[in-house]
Design a protein that fits this description.
Blueprint lengths: L3 E5 L6 H12 L2 E4 H14 L7 H10 L2 E5 L6 E5 L2 E2 L7 H10 L3 H12 L7 E5 L2 H5 L5 E6 L2 H14 L6 H17 L12 E4 L5 H10 L4
Parallel strand pairs: 1-6, 1-7, 2-6, 7-8
Antiparallel strand pairs: 3-4, 4-5
This protein binds 2'-deoxycytidine-5'-monophosphate (DC).
Length: 221
């Protein structure tokens, strides 16, 4: 499919920001797939459901009442769950870590598949996550896999969290991100891995604008 771009990669690499900018440039829809796992984590925490409770989590995944609303200038994505704005709340690393634990479960991943695919609407979709190019949209023509050094990714996530008023220790965040990446890469179902036909971009030394430019330059629409 020539109108789907997948952007996968580890935590804190800047996929979300890059995806928003590309979606804005092209006027396409956007899927922040990590937010779905984070929302499940938030609901689990609120209802004291274990990250290992497959039955309850599959049920929740099938019933999710969510809405993703891009801001007018497409610089942000507002995330609404059951009419409540949870955009900033789910960015807390506690939900990142819980999301990663929930995401190892194959049945929960399957329950979220159709919902993720429904984000594909004309004129096109930019999908950000871990398995966008490998599992959710394997037919996408443009697949990118972003990487960056662990230090740089921790720093990027740190700045992002500070920006939305979430204060954390950089050293702790770096550790949490490393644990999460390890879990996401080692799981048997839909692990974090570049699709064989994805273009990998090491973004360590690049600005957001440079990454966006490189991606757009590699596409022939
Ligand atoms: O992109 P993120 O940091 O918001 O994702 C949170 C977690 O959700 C991530 O550590 C693993 C899981 N996830 C996943 O398994 N598959 C995706 N496509 C996106 C996220």
């Amino acid at each position: 499919m020539t109108n789907i771009i997948t952007i996968d990669g580890p935590s804190g690499v800047g996929k979300g920001t890059v995806s928003l900018k590309i979606a804005k440039h092209l006027g396409w829809n956007i899927l922040d797939s990590g937010a779905l796992y984070r929302i499940l984590a938030l609901i689990a925490k609120r209802n004291q459901i274990s990250v290992k409770d497959e039955n309850q989590l599959v049920k929740l995944a099938n019933e999710l009442d969510i809405e993703f609303i891009p801001s007018d200038d497409l610089s942000k994505l507002q995330i609404i769950y059951a009419k409540q704005d949870i955009t900033s709340e789910i960015r807390n690393e506690i939900y990142g870590s819980m999301a990663s634990q929930i995401a190892v479960n194959a049945k929960i991943r399957t329950a979220l598949l159709a919902r993720q695919r429904a984000f594909y609407i004309l004129p096109g979709l930019v999908a950000d996550g871990r398995d966008m190019g490998t599992v959710v949209f394997p037919e996408a023509k443009y697949k990118f896999f972003l990487t960056a050094s662990c230090e740089e990714r921790a720093l990027r996530r740190y700045k992002q969290l500070i920006n939305i008023g979430i204060y954390v220790r950089l050293s702790e965040l770096a550790l949490e991100i490393a644990n999460r990446d390890k879990r996401d890469s080692m799981r048997t179902t839909a692990p974090l891995v570049a699709a064989p036909d994805a273009i990998t971009i090491d973004t360590t030394e690049l600005s957001i604008e440079e990454v966006v430019e490189q991606i757009l330059n590699k596409m022939v629409l």
